[in-house]
Amino acid sequence: MLETEVPEPSPRNRTTLLKLRARQCRYVTSDSGSEAIFCGGQTKEGSSWCPWHRQLVYTKPSSSGAKPGRGFIVPKLA
Fold first, then answer.
1. Which InterPro entries match (predicted)?
2. Are 64 and 41 in contact, with CB atoms under 8 Å apart?
């Protein structure tokens, strides 16, 4: 499990793009070539990802001098 105790979403919620509804996770769990499959777990207001996938996608800025940018680590340019 990841740093915090966030439960992994159930595979039963997985769905296709055309079947996604509001407040369903848009994290792509597989791409079989013809059709992407999305997590479909419940999201919090204003988020595209469920708590499980959100903590996978977003990282904390490191103290190594990398510049943080909108939740993602942006490497320094040489």
1. GcrA
2. no
